[in-house]
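User: I'm putting together notes for a lab meeting next week and I want to include a structural view of one of the chains we've been expressing. I don't have a solved structure, so I'd like a prediction I can at least talk through. The sequence is below, exactly as it appears in our construct file.
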Amino acid sequence: MNHQLAERIALTAALFLMATTALAQAVPPAPQPTEAQEAEAEEFDSPPPLLMGDATQSLLAWQRSGEIASRTPRPIAGSVASRSYERYIKSFEHPIPEQLGSTVTKSKGGGGASSGGR
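Assistant: Thanks for the context. Below is the predicted structure for the 118-residue chain, given as C-alpha cells.
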C-alpha cells in the first residue's frame, strides 16, 4: 500500500512539474512599457489615500442608492408581521436577566472602549 502511495505522489509531482513548465512556456512575457508610456503614466496622480471611514461611507451610499438591491420583492405577510411585532412589544414586559446585563463601565477621562466583564 505504501508503495502505491509513493508512486501516486511521484506521478502527481511529475504531472505538476510538466504542467507548470508547459504554462511557463505558453505565456508570453509581458510587454515592457515604452518611455512615452512611462512618462504618460507619471503625469497622472494616483488617487488620494483613503481616510478613516471612507470605505464605510461609500458602502452606505451604495446601499442608499439601491443600485445593488434585489429586484425580487420579498413582502412579509400581514399575519406574520403582526405576530412579530406583538412578540417584540411583549419582550419589554420582562426585565433583562442579570447575566445579560451591560458590561459597560463608567469611567472618568477619555472616551475609550471598556473591556469590562461580568
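A couple of points you could mention at the meeting. Residues 2-26 form the longest helix (25 residues). DSSP finds four helices and no strands in the chain.

User: Perfect, that's what I needed.
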